[in-house]
Design goal:
The protein folds into three domains: 29 residues; 93 residues, Immunoglobulin-like (Sandwich), CATH 2.60.40; 32 residues. Helix content is 35%, strand content 42%. The chain is built from two helices and seven strands. Strands 1, 2, 3, 4, 5, 6 and 7 form a seven-stranded mixed sheet that branches. Strand 3 and strand 4 form a beta hairpin.
């Protein structure tokens, strides 16, 4: 075998070894997880204050078999079907700062974790009062307009 041919054979063997190691590394990789919280119905501030119905959505790597959802380190839901999500109502828990955690598991038992903090607050009364005032003002304006148009028609 010539030197040139031997170096080509070695180069090809090295490439296949590198590809095999890369594939093996992907197969044995730990799962990945990211978490987003979506307001279904309720109140939220510009910070992390929350009140009402919420859903935690976990975006995970393809090899994930289940996701556990925790509130303050207490298991709330073990989801074994995609899409992985947990819905909750803040009124079911004490007011204050809480840690929401999601743990993804793959078929080999490897885990990945994502956490976020959320402050559960009561529904703000000033918001309710604002809605009531807006409804009253709109009702008065509509009534006045109805009277004005009714008088115009009779002339």
């Amino acid at each position: 075998m010539t030197k040139k041919r031997l170096s080509s054979v070695l180069l090809v063997a090295l490439m296949f070894t590198a590809i095999g190691l890369a594939c093996a590394a992907q197969v044995n990789a730990d799962p990945t997880i990211t978490m987003k919280i979506h307001k279904d119905y309720g109140y939220s501030s510009f910070g992390n204050d929350a009140q009402g119905d919420w859903t935690v959505h976990a975006t995970v790597s393809e090899d994930t078999t289940r996701v556990e959802f925790y509130l303050d380190d207490e298991l709330q839901f073990d989801d074994t079907q995609t899409p992985f999500a947990w819905s909750y109502v803040t009124d079911d828990f004490p007011e204050g700062l809480h840690t929401i955690k999601a743990v993804a598991y793959d078929s080999n038992g490897n885990t990945a974790t994502a956490e976020v903090e959320q402050n559960f607050v009561p529904f703000p009364m000033d918001f309710t009062i604002g809605i009531v005032i807006a409804v009253v003002v709109i009702s008065v304006v509509v009534s006045i307009l109805a009277v004005v148009f009714a008088r115009r028609k009779t002339r």
